[in-house]
Design goal:
Elements: E1 6-9, E2 12-18, E3 21-25, H1 29-37, E4 41-42, E5 53-55, H2 58-61, H3 67-81
Antiparallel strand pairs: 1-2, 2-3, 3-5, 4-5
């Protein structure tokens, strides 16, 4: 994880915070294109944005009870929820000193 807040379904992150940005993971390329057209942008560090995620337009989070932002987060939850559950990585064996 990148040291910020994330929301997960079946071990896969569908929504997260990075600084002031709220990002959603959309598995459907058409939905990513629609969000980008609506003003969504890269999510994560500028030098290495997270693939498959888009930041919601800044103005959306400034409107209390914004239905549009809620709908995109719900869509991300639904899409990521259809992915296979993430399997935990095996732990590395400790080296004896």
């Amino acid at each position: 994880m990148f040291g910020s807040v994330g929301a997960f379904v079946n071990g896969n992150m569908f929504c997260g915070l990075f600084g002031a940005d709220v990002g959603v993971r959309l598995t459907d390329p058409g939905d990513r294109a629609r969000l980008a057209q609506a003003g969504g942008g890269p999510f994560g560090p500028a030098e290495r944005p997270m693939g498959g995620y888009l930041a919601l337009p800044t103005g959306w989070r400034d409107e209390p009870g914004n239905v549009t932002a809620r709908e995109w987060v719900g869509l991300a939850y639904h899409q990521v929820g259809t992915l296979a559950p993430k399997q935990p990585k095996p732990r590395k064996a400790r080296q004896k000193s």
